[in-house]
Design brief:
The chain is an alpha+beta fold and 232 residues long. The chain contains 2 helices and 14 strands, in the order H-H-E-E-E-E-E-E-E-E-E-E-E-E-E-E. It is elongated, with a radius of gyration of 31 Å. This is Flagella basal body P-ring formation protein FlgA.
Length: 232
């Protein structure tokens, strides 16, 4: 009987040791989440605001072999912005790949209408307010600085409180299609000026093409006052 208990104790000890070894060889879910968090912190560096990364839970029932160097990556088309999915893969000793849900929130300033903004009229400072919120939940191409919208006109009427989107704003042209403009060019020891006709609309600083009296097409930089700067 003593021999039987001795053998049984040895079997139980071996099973316990094997169980501990198996647990030690399994990938710790916490390390997976740490890899995702560290990866998103790097990927979101430089975003315009205070970034907060939240990593979803990892299914504890999932058994992955331990990996000394798990590599996190973004799936094609994914961004470190809002709700996203991050992959984590292991190359050796046992290759595997797992996908983990995460959320990247960006608390920052955005520009909203403090008063109604009529369609087609230049936007002035008194119509604007600086607000704060999670930029990842805002419309695409949201304005984050008043300088981005002042002087522009809106394609639509904007109600008070609505965020301003850059893709719905137009820059007032300083040169219009068909307008007679003054071509100017300066260089070491010379200054040239000639008359031409604009082929398209252009805002200050934009490239515009003009046609000279001789029919030649030239590209230059549109400037206020109906001037186009040309470099020769």
């Amino acid at each position: 009987m003593k021999t039987f208990y001795t053998v049984l104790s040895g079997v139980m000890l071996a099973a316990l040791l094997n169980g501990n070894a198996t647990a030690a060889e399994a990938m710790d879910p916490a390390k997976l989440r740490q890899a995702v968090d560290a990866f998103l912190q790097v990927q979101s560096a430089g975003l315009p605001g205070k970034v907060t990364v939240t990593v979803g839970n990892v299914d504890a029932r999932m058994k992955l072999a331990a990996c000394p160097a798990p590599e996190a990556f973004l799936m094609p088309g994914s961004k470190p912005w809002g709700k996203t999915t991050v992959g984590v893969r292991c190359a050796a000793p046992s290759p595997w790949t797992v996908y983990i849900q995460a959320n990247v929130s960006v608390l920052g300033n955005y520009i909203a209408a403090a008063a109604p903004v009529p369609q087609g009229q230049p936007i002035v400072d008194s119509q604007l307010a600086t607000m704060q919120g999670d930029l990842t939940t805002m419309p695409a191409s949201i304005a984050t600085d008043k300088a981005q919208v002042l002087g522009r006109t809106s394609n639509i009427a904007i109600s008070a409180g609505m965020p301003l989107r850059l893709d719905s704003l137009r820059i007032k042209p300083v040169v219009q299609s068909g307008q007679l403009v003054r071509l100017v060019s300066n260089g070491p020891g010379f200054k040239v000026s000639a008359e031409a006709k604009a082929v398209a609309n252009a805002a200050d600083g934009q490239v515009v093409q003009v046609r000279t009296a001789g029919g030649q097409h030239i590209s230059g930089i549109a400037r206020a006052g109906g001037m186009v700067e040309v470099a020769f």
